[in-house]
Amino acid sequence: MSQTVDRALSILPLLAEGPADLGQVADRLGVHKSTALRLLRTLHEHGLVYRQADQRYRLGARLFALAQEAVENLDVREIAHPHLVELNEKCGHTVHLAVHEENEVLYIDKVESRYPVRMYSRIGKPVAITVAAVAKLLLADLPEAERRTLAATLDYPRYTARSTPDATAFLAELAKVREQGWATDLGGHEESINCVAAPVRGADGRVVAAMSVSAPNVVVSAEELLTLLPLVRRTADAISREYSGSTPTKEA
């Protein structure tokens, strides 16, 4: 039975490449045409494949509907939270998760630092969009035209001497973040607070959330915090794999 399921599922990536006829499906599976036809008929009955007028098969609309429904029902916060807790236990610093919604970047989860000095941030509170590391990651993923339009509409408060001064500098920073795949806020919002962040991606590779580790200078220096970047990125990658349902790549 497991072999039958495996063969049936192997048809789907083949049809994702484009319509195929019965002979092509049978050849790819290494089975007789009668076996391939039984599998295709079963998938067709469930709406996962569709037989065209030219007798070739393509992916069915039901498959796309199921995928869309699954994505809509995913809760990135629920998936990410255990990973955020684990990261907090390893490093001891404040961990945040943020998303981009309706022109704002909002914290949707937070795990407090174990140290006495705490950060003033709340779940549901918008971040400082022009300087926050999580905001840079989320906005850097926007198409270039949207990035430029957004940059032109923002105000650029000078929270500190390191704050992003204007739209030109903001766009340059977003381009840098987009290329390197991670972001920092080193005293841009508060002189004494530093932050490193990494993106959480969906199955299509787009950034769906951003997570960060933040700490005050009195606890750890900016240089020391940056040494945590590999750990932060591994955590974000683990969340991304679970969110997108992908299988981890085995290490050699």
Shape: elongated
Radius of gyration equals 23 Å
Q: What structural class should be given to the helix and strand makeup?
A: alpha+beta
Low-confidence stretches: none
Into which percentage range does the β-strand content fall? 15-25%
Question: What's the order of the H and E elements?
Answer: HHHEEHHEEHHHEEEHH
Please count the helical segments: 10
- Helix content range of the residues, please? 40-55%
Can you count the beta strands?
7
For the largest beta-sheet, the strand count, sense and barrel status come to: 5 strands, antiparallel
Question: What's the pLDDT, averaged over the residues?
Answer: 89
The strand line-up of the biggest sheet is 4-3-7-6-5
Distance between the termini: 32 Å
Please provide a written account of the structure:
- There is one protein chain.
- The strands form two sheets. The protein has a five-stranded antiparallel beta sheet with strand order 4-3-7-6-5, sandwiched between helices. Strands 1-2 form a two-stranded antiparallel ribbon.
- It is of the alpha+beta class and 252 residues long.
- The protein contains ten helices and seven strands.
- Helices cover 46% and strands 18% of the residues.
